[in-house]
Amino acid sequence: MKYFFLTSFFCCLSYFALHSQNLVQNPGFENFESCPDNGGQISRATHWDRPELTTGTPDYYNRCFEPSPPAASLDIPFNWTGYQEAHNGDGYAGVYNFGYGDLREYIQSRLIAPLETGWAYQVGFYVNTSNLSGIAIDALGAYFSADPLVGEGDFQPFLGVTPQINNPTGNILTDTAAWTYIEGHFVATGGEEFITIGNFLTDSMTQHIIYDEGYAYGQGYTFIDDVSVVLADSVTNVNNIADKDTRVQIFPNPTPNNFTVSFLEGPFVDCCLYLYNFNGKLVKTQNIYSVETEIVGDDLTHGIYFYKIIGTNNKVFSGKLIVGKG
Predict the structure, then answer these.
(1) What does residue 204 show for φ and ψ, rounded to 5 degrees?
(2) CB 5, CB 287: distance < 8 Å
(3) DSSP-assigned letters across all residues of 99-141
(4) For residues 116 and 193, what is the distance between their CA atoms, to the nearest angstrom?
(5) CA 122, CA 130: separation in Å to the nearest integer?
(6) Which residues contact 251 (CB under 8 A, 6 or more apart)?
(7) Largest CA distance in the chain
(8) Beta bridge partners of 93
(9) Which of 24, 94, 134, 167 could link 215 by a cystine bridge, Cβ 3.0 to 4.6 Å?
(10) Which of left, alpha, beta for 167 (phi over 0: left; psi -120 to 50: alpha)?
């Protein structure tokens, strides 16, 4: 019994740790294949690149910048776009996102693991408008896809692509000194493995202002740093969870408080129970270390709950639990 408990404990802990870690590789652009020595070298930042068949040339900035004259400075904090410290560490990315005939640049990266069906993810990244850009916009977002985005051999925006995460419409990013955090959450369809960041709208659909006539070249330019994708503590589409999974039995159900989890197919030890309230908030986790395990529910208020049980063999059991009757 002690063996099963310990194995299950570490299984549950490792599963939760996997899904609470940042799924973005090299999120702060700290790691690199080689130092930048000119513009358009985002691919030198490990795990980052531009989408294929796009002619934009997103930039990589790092304090290790080694100029190769004639070259634009990609140093930090002083560089060809002005002055900006990194949000953290020694690196960040930069993209054009407005003007010049819908000029767009995007950065793209493969996640550590694909997103899971029905799970909610919290996404965030920091942005800063270049003080030598002269134009600030509102339309910046992050798009998740199972396959990498591919352009059409030009620098036009990805029309028809709706990013899951967006800076609010009308919230024009005018701060050229401090970093602004863009965040949001969404429920994954499942299998999304690539993140692409940029402006997915045309100039005519993008709200903008010219904040400095002296530096307005008709183009908007933004720095990006510290990108994160982590499992949220809620699952908003709990209605997609089946009312009953015939492979596992929960009893009594309804229950006044405590209930028992019994596997009818298995045995499946080394599992972890995740219990969500009716609003989709994670309220309880519990190790499952035997074929039949009693769960203490004294801390649960009356209502409808949804459970998912996930094991080391990636089997998923789900269903509904009613607390308050018995």
Answers:
(1) -65, -25
(2) yes
(3) ETTT----EEEEBSSPPPTT-EEEEEEEEEE-TTT-EEES--E
(4) 10
(5) 26
(6) 259, 260, 262
(7) 78
(8) 60, 224
(9) 134
(10) beta
For each of the chain's 326 residues, which pLDDT tens digit applies? 344 344 444 445 555 555 568 999 999 999 999 999 999 999 999 999 999 999 899 999 999 998 776 667 999 999 998 899 999 999 999 999 998 889 999 999 999 999 988 777 889 999 999 988 889 999 999 999 999 999 988 888 888 899 999 999 999 999 999 999 999 878 788 999 999 999 999 999 999 998 876 554 668 999 999 999 988 754 434 444 555 567 788 999 999 999 999 887 665 556 788 888 877 778 888 888 788 899 999 999 998 898 888 765 556 778 889 998 65
Contact call for residues 36 and 44 (beta carbons, < 8 A): yes
Both ends of the chain: CA-CA distance in Å? 29
SS3 label, residue 165: strand
Can you give the pTM of this predicted structure? 0.71
Q: How many residues does the chain have?
A: 326
Amino acid in the structure at residue 186 = F
